[in-house]
Amino acid sequence: MARWIGTSQERRAEQFLRNAGLRFEARNISYRGCEIDLIMREHNTWVCVEVKYRRSDSHGVAAETINAAKIRRMGHALERYLKEHKINPTMAPMRLDAVVIDDNRIEWIKNIGV
Questions:
Q1: Domains in the chain, start-ordered, CATH in brackets?
Q2: How much is the pTM?
Q3: How far apart (Å, rounded) are the C-alpha atoms in residues 62 and 55?
Q4: Residue 69: HSE in the Cβ half-sphere, 13 Å Cα cutoff
Q5: Which of 81, 89, 96, 111 is deepest in the core (most CB within 10 A)?
Q6: What InterPro entries does this protein map onto (predicted)?
Q7: Measured between alpha carbons, how far is residue 16 from residues 40, 50, 62 in Å?
């Protein structure tokens, strides 16, 4: 996928979450082995968001691309981000979410790490 398409879909997901009441914290945080697309806050909960986009379902829907290994890496990356910002991850409420976009349909999936 072209980089500009990914960026535009991440912005679309961010606006969707802002409209739902979340506050933006950071985007495109990279660590070895993982990138966090969006970090948002819902009240006092830190939310790590994976954004997946599919123009068509000819190769499956966007949600099917998120696997257990990806979820594990997201959790580790969020913990590292919090530590770097002097926030104790064992004391901070955290959640792993996904925003999946299939063409024009957007869906917010909460707690993908459960």
A1: 3-109 (3.40.1350.10)
A2: 0.85
A3: 9
A4: 3
A5: 96
A6: Restrct_endonuc-II-like, tRNA_endonuc-like_dom_sf, UPF0102_YraN-like
A7: 12, 13, 17
